[in-house]
Backbone:
């Protein structure tokens, strides 16, 4: 069992966490001007990197969404960062 | 002259100490240019090369494999073949593959050991039985074989199933597909490799694609660890690495890669002669010809290219096994492994042109790549040879994500992948 670092709770079992999406996507606006292709790209396309990866995860037990930096080959976790405004 | 395999040749070789067997395919050096290059020497890539030669008369073809032939997901899957899907598009695709599998050993002159022992998907409540009958109806309307079973019919097929009053997931009945079964996964890769090689295809192993050769905005070949190889048309069938190849070509795909793990027990005497899947536990299993119980389940929860699988999912799968077959608690596990699978949001594959002109793909097969090898090969070969979709592959084009015409089998057939 791997332990993931929640910025709020600290190290917890991986089964308490849920993968959300890759980090760094920006919702295209305004909706009326967004083409179907751009919307599909925003919804579905992803880098799916092999190696270092920046991902949005949620700690389901406390509800914290955060940025997790990890390696998709070694599973090593290299960083965990809160997404709350005003926090580094 | 290539050898033809037969009972007679086996007998003759037996009399002469098995010393007359020749290599089943060549290991040629790559030529500077081919009419068609297929990236990926697994089942799908080799089948694509075979059907390029057989169906379209294009035999100046190279299959490029970064490791060894069939060493990726083709050698890591649990070798089940079935077409028990909900949507007409899916049944058209997977049942086409199943039909080709039915004649494959004869066609390739290579025994792929396809054993049509049937798959039973077990339901555990009145509500699930309604869903099961809906799937059976859909399958029958779509033209494939399906039968709704009651609990006694399920126990007849798998007598060791948990009949206890305290069963967490009691057997209410299930969906039966009798034409489904298992095949020898390595033999499928080797059979296609041998047949493609005979037709003139060059199979180039230990040759990794490092980039694409682009001329006038069109894919004109590939850069590899063994030099540049030009191609009139390029196809990729690289399960577990679609995102990596797309990155080299400069586009993103709606694919996330996960580990899918499986394990086998020590070999035991014959005790299970069908494939069993529980809707409730997500665990499925069958007994291999060697006697091992082959067990698999759902995806790991963590995006991964690690090819190893993590302990929490292993625990889930094995708890499912103990619930289904309490007597299998005595078995020792021999091996555990995982493959990388490319998962698409609607759990259906992506077959068609890519954003780079001249490059076609067959990928995103998720956990269903092995069962679809013959169909994937025919369809990608058709695209590469004609530039147009086959009627069966059209619904699986990448454009469905923009049009919204998804084929959501995770919701449709309730099979988790």
Residues:
């Amino acid at each position: 069992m791997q332990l993931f670092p929640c910025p709020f709770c600290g190290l917890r079992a991986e089964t308490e966490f849920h993968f959300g999406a890759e980090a760094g996507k920006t919702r295209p606006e305004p909706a009326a001007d967004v083409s179907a292709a751009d919307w599909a790209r925003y919804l579905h396309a992803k880098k799916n990197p092999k190696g270092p990866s920046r991902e949005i995860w949620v700690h389901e037990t406390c509800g914290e969404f955060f940025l997790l930096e990890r390696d998709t080959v070694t599973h090593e976790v290299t960083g965990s960062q809160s997404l709350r405004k005003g926090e580094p | 002259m290539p050898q033809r395999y037969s009972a007679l040749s086996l007998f003759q070789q037996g009399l002469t100490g098995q010393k007359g067997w020749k290599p089943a395919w060549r290991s040629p050096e790559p030529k500077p240019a081919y009419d068609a290059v297929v990236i990926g020497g697994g089942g799908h890539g080799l089948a694509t090369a075979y059907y390029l030669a057989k169906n379209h008369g294009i035999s100046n073809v190279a299959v490029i494999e970064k490791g060894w032939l069939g060493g990726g997901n083709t050698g890591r899957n649990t070798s089940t073949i079935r077409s028990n899907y909900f949507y007409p598009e899916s049944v058209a695709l997977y049942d086409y593959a199943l039909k080709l599998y039915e004649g494959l050993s004869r066609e390739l002159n290579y025994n792929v050991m396809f054993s049509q022992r049937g798959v039973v998907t077990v339901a555990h409540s009145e509500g699930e039985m309604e869903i099961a009958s809906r799937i059976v109806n859909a399958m029958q309307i779509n033209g494939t074989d399906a039968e709704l079973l009651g609990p006694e019919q399920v126990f007849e097929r798998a007598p060791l199933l948990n009949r206890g009053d305290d069963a967490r997931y009691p057997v209410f009945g299930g969906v039966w597909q009798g034409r489904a079964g298992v095949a020898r996964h390595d033999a499928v890769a080797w059979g296609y490799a041998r047949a493609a090689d005979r037709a003139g295809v060059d199979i180039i192993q230990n040759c990794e694609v490092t980039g694409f050769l682009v001329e006038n905005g069109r894919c004109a070949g590939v850069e590899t660890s063994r030099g540049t190889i030009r191609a009139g048309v390029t196809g990729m069938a690289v399960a577990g690495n679609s995102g990596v190849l797309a990155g080299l070509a400069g586009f993103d795909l709606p694919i996330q890669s996960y580990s899918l793990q499986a394990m086998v027990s020590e070999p035991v005497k014959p005790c299970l002669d069908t494939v069993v899947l529980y809707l409730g536990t997500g665990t499925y299993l069958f007994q291999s010809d060697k006697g091992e119980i082959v067990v698999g389940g759902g995806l790991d929860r963590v995006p991964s290219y690690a090819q190893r699988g993590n302990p929490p999912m292993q625990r889930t799968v094995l708890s499912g096994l103990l619930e289904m077959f309490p007597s299998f608690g005595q078995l020792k596990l021999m091996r555990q492994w995982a493959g990388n699978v490319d998962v698409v949001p609607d759990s259906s594959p992506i077959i068609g042109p890519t954003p780079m002109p001249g490059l076609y793909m067959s990928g995103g097969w998720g956990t269903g790549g092995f069962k679809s090898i013959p169909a994937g090969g025919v369809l990608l070969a058709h695209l590469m040879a004609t530039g147009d979709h086959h009627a069966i592959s059209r619904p699986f084009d990448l454009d469905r994500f923009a049009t919204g015409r998804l084929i959501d089998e995770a919701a449709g057939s309730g099979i988790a992948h």
Summary: The first helix of chain B runs from residue 7 to 15. Residues 317 and 358 of chain B are 42 Å apart (CA to CA).
